[in-house]
Amino acid sequence: MQVSDYIRTFHKLDSVICNDLIQYYKEHGSWSESTFSSNTENTGKSSVSMNQYWVTPKDKFYNILDKTFKSAVDDYIKEYTRITPVAYTAFRLNHYAEGGFMRNHTDNIYKSHGQQYGYPHLTSLVFLNDDYEGGEFLMCNSTQKFKLKQGSVIVFPSNFMFDHEVAKVTKGNRYTCMTWVM
């Protein structure tokens, strides 16, 4: 098998829900500037240019996101049966405006952004729109390149073999939502 065999994509949300979610959080989300954190340091804004909003169980669309992530992870673990999800971290909405990016990194973290302690097994992202230019999701030393359709979910292991980054958005706005699966 190749490393890319452990990266899976699924189409889970329709465009109406994605558009409604983006519009709602544009108007009602308390967005903040994201910084880049590791186990030992916060590297600030030099590694990321993105705004974030943490979706809580009280938020509108939380249940839809929860079902979407669980459905994609359930599909993933049907094939990779040794993974047993015990928890999902809070859902982070990511907004990359024109010029936005995130440098190459891995999600093999113990604590980041106030999340619960423990190393995640999987990373999962929902792509909420596709009407932007640039902003490709690059993985595995940029050997894997993704520009997923609106409503698609990507699931992959959260370890050193699955480095990833978001290329600079050259036009428009890019919206995703992520969680780590513990």
What this model shows, in words?
This protein has 182 residues and is of the alpha+beta class. It has helices at 15-28, 62-79, and strands at 8-11, 32-33, 36-37, 42-44, 48-49, 51-55, 91-96, 101-105, 122-127, 133-134, 137-139, 144-146, 152-157, 164-166, 169-171, 174-181. A 7-stranded antiparallel beta sheet has the order 1-13-9-16-7-6-2, covered by helices on one side. A 5-stranded antiparallel beta sheet has the order 5-8-14-11-12, with no helix packed on it. Strand 3 (36-37) and strand 4 (42-44) form a beta hairpin. It is globular and about 40 Å long. The relative contact order is 0.25.
Mean of residue pLDDT? Answer: 92
Q: What's the total number of strands?
A: 16
The end-to-end distance, rounded to whole angstroms, is 24 Å
Global shape = globular
Please give the order of strands in the largest beta sheet: 1-13-9-16-7-6-2
Helix count, DSSP H or I runs of 4 or more residues: 2
- Radius of gyration, Cα only, in angstroms? 15 Å
Helix/sheet category: alpha+beta
In which range does the helix fraction lie? 10-25%
Q: Encode the helix/strand succession as letters.
A: EHEEEEEHEEEEEEEEEE
Biggest sheet layout: 7 strands, antiparallel
β-strand amount: 25-35%
Q: Which regions have little confidence, pLDDT < 50, spanning 5+ residues?
A: none
